Amino acid sequence: MRFRSGPLQKERAMPIQTENLHIAALRPLPAPAALAASLPRDEAVSRTVADSRAAIRAILAGRDDRLLVVAGPCSVHDPAAALDYAARLAEMRHALSDRLEIVMRVYFEKPRTTVGWKGLINDPHLDGSDRIEDGLPLARRLLLEINRMGLPAATEFLDPILPQYFADLIAWGAIGARTTESQIHRQLASGLSCPVGFKNGTDGGVQVALDAIRSASRPHSFPAITAEGRAAIATTTGNDACHVVLRGGHGGPNYGADHVAAVAAAAAKAGIEPGIVIDASHANSDKDPARQPEVIADVAARIRTGDSRIRGVMLESHLVAGRQDLRDGQVPVYGQSITDGCLGWEDSRALLLDLAGAAATRLRCAA
Questions:
Q1: Cβ within 8 Å of residue 310, ≥6 positions away
Q2: N or C: which end of the chain has fewer CB within 10 A?
Q3: Strand partners, 215
Q4: Does residue 58 contact residue 311 with C-beta atoms inside 8 Å?
Q5: How far apart are CA 125 and CA 104, in angstroms?
Q6: Residue 96's pLDDT is what?
């Protein structure tokens, strides 16, 4: 068989495209250092972050018998409402600081099982335009304003690159149930400067979080970007302030006394301090925000008896109870979540007071 020459030879001479086949566009981002220089933290902000990190470390290690409380919206979508909430929470932090270490939940990234709004950084205009270049300065500016109130901030770390832009303003971080098993996120946690909570897996299994703590406490080397935005190899020292967050799973809640005892026993066998934090939301409340007070009441009762294994709690809380869907042409309800449902402010305030009372009793028991 003879092959024809001509057009086929020309086709073979053409370069074969093998990269960027599904990339529609690449837009530049400022280097992390450039964003930090344009929105710098001052001495007061740095002190708020550093002092809260130190306090949280002491609480998680059992050296401080106060209770860590991470409270705030499921995710921030309206900076004005977030600052309104922050001002109220800052007052509670000041009033209850002898019993509670209150930190505001300021979540900018929303992990998705399939599709949906991915958070303020990814889509700050809530319109699908995905203007990350607008979201990053908006997020950093908001964190600066919250910290200037004397209120430290907490967030979930999802994308491994984004922490370079705002992690210096975070007092406590979380790795979510979907990413606790991820090697990338364990490596990331090993280099973060703040305490990090690993949530149990979506199936409710806690061993994956204990394994993550052991991994993140060790040194790692991995590809990263520098503050100047260049590709580099990060070598970490390991993070000794990692701990477990119990958030329930497919099998149901896991905040009960038997669950806490089982986690403490498994951690002891593994030779680690679990620093147990209980998330009153998610599967622990059957994804019903109105059931969070039931969870807190149970946890607070055990704290009152002197149970020192519970070091902290988490609440999904906003100005207005419940949640809403964004609809074209309709003004959203001010201060109400657009992701998971939250408790309203008055109910949240009551829970904070209850937790402060429980922590006070435990402090007296420890004295």
A1: 67, 260, 276, 277, 278, 299, 302, 303
A2: N
A3: none
A4: no
A5: 23
A6: 98
pTM > 0.85: yes or no: yes
CB contact at 8 A, 275 and 243: yes
Q: Give the integer Cα–Cα distance in Å for 127 and 118.
A: 11
Q: Which amino acid type is present at position 365?
A: C
Q: Give the pair of three-digit tokens for residue 340.
A: 């998971």
What are the pLDDT digits (tens) for 203-231? Answer: 999 999 999 999 999 999 999 999 999 99
Quick check: 53 and 171 in contact, CB under 8 A? yes
Tell the residue number behind the tokens 């270049």, with chain if given: 133
Largest CA distance in the chain: 95
What's the average pLDDT block by block, 10 residues per block, for the chain (367 residues)? 51 81 93 98 98 98 97 98 98 98 96 82 94 97 98 97 97 97 98 98 96 98 96 97 97 96 96 96 96 98 96 98 92 96 98 98 88
Q: Nearest-CA neighbor of 249 among 207, 189, 200, 212? A: 200
Domain spans, the chain: 30-366
Closest by CA position to 322, among listed 348, 298, 299, 300: 348
Question: Both tokens of residue 283?
Answer: 């599967």
- pLDDT recorded at residue 3: 47
At 277-332, the pLDDT tens digits run: 999 999 999 999 999 999 999 999 999 999 999 999 999 999 999 999 999 888 99
Instruction: Report yes or no: 149 and 87 within 8 Å, Cβ to Cβ.
Output: yes
Angle of helix 257-270 relative to helix 207-216, nearest 10 degrees, comes to 40
CB-CB contact of 196 with 174 (8 Å):
yes
Q: Which CATH superfamily is domain 30-366 in?
A: Aldolase class I (3.20.20.70)
The amino acid at 350: A
Contact (CB, 8 A) for 88 and 102 = no
Q: Of the candidates 257, 237, 233, which has an alpha carbon nearest to the alpha carbon of residue 246?
A: 257
Helix segments in the chain, DSSP class H: 7-13, 32-38, 43-60, 79-96, 132-148, 163-166, 183-191, 207-216, 257-270, 292-304, 345-366
Q: What tokens were used for 218?
A: 């060790």
> How many angstroms separate the CA atoms of 127 and 164, rounded?
26
